[in-house]
Amino acid sequence: MAENEIWFDNAQQSGIYAVQRFARTLQRDITAVKNALTERWSNGQTEGQINRLKTLRRGITGASDCTLCSQGIELFSSAGA
Q1: Do the beta carbons of residue 8 and residue 23 sit within 8 Å?
Q2: How many domains, in total, are found in the chain?
Q3: 49-35-51 Cα angle (round to 5)
Q4: Cβ(25)–Cβ(12) below 8 Å
Q5: What is the pLDDT of residue 45?
Q6: How far does CA 54 lie from the centroid of its chain?
Q7: Which residues are CB-contacts of 7 (< 8 A; sequence separation ≥ 6)?
Q8: Which of the chain's termini has less CB crowding within 10 Å, N or C?
Q9: pTM of this prediction?
Q10: Distance CA 23, CA 43 (A)
Q11: Residue 33 lies in a domain
Q12: CB 58 within 8 A of CB 64
């Protein structure tokens, strides 16, 4: 039995819901996890470009306008008073 199979068995028998759920999710995506750990390439460059485009879009559409943020803060602070 491989080490990871022993770990999954122990996690499932731990009685700790969060550990059991983490193990189930990890096991469901085990191929992707193994590839992420063993392959030389990553999608970091792609993620960086997506982040840059989202930032540009927010600037163009005004989603980064802090007046909207401050109005939301004022709304919440006056609701609690």
Answers
A1: yes
A2: 1
A3: 15
A4: no
A5: 82
A6: 17
A7: 23
A8: C
A9: 0.46
A10: 24
A11: yes
A12: yes
The encoded tokens of residue 36 equal: 């992420």
What was the pLDDT predicted at 24? 92
In a domain, 7, yes or no: yes
Rounded to the nearest 10 degrees, the angle between the axes of helix 3-12 and helix 17-28 is 140
Question: Would you state the pLDDT for residue 78?
Answer: 55
> 27 is written with which tokens?
């096991």
Report yes or no on 34 lying in a domain: yes
Instruction: Report CA-CA distances (Å) from 72 to 50, 51, 57, 77.
Output: 27, 25, 21, 9
- Full residue range of the structural domain in which residue 7 is found: 3-38
pLDDT, tens digit only, all 81 positions of the chain: 587 789 999 999 999 999 999 999 999 988 888 888 888 887 888 888 898 898 888 877 766 555 555 555 555 555 555
The whole-number pLDDT of residue 17 equals 94
Structural domain includes residue 78: no
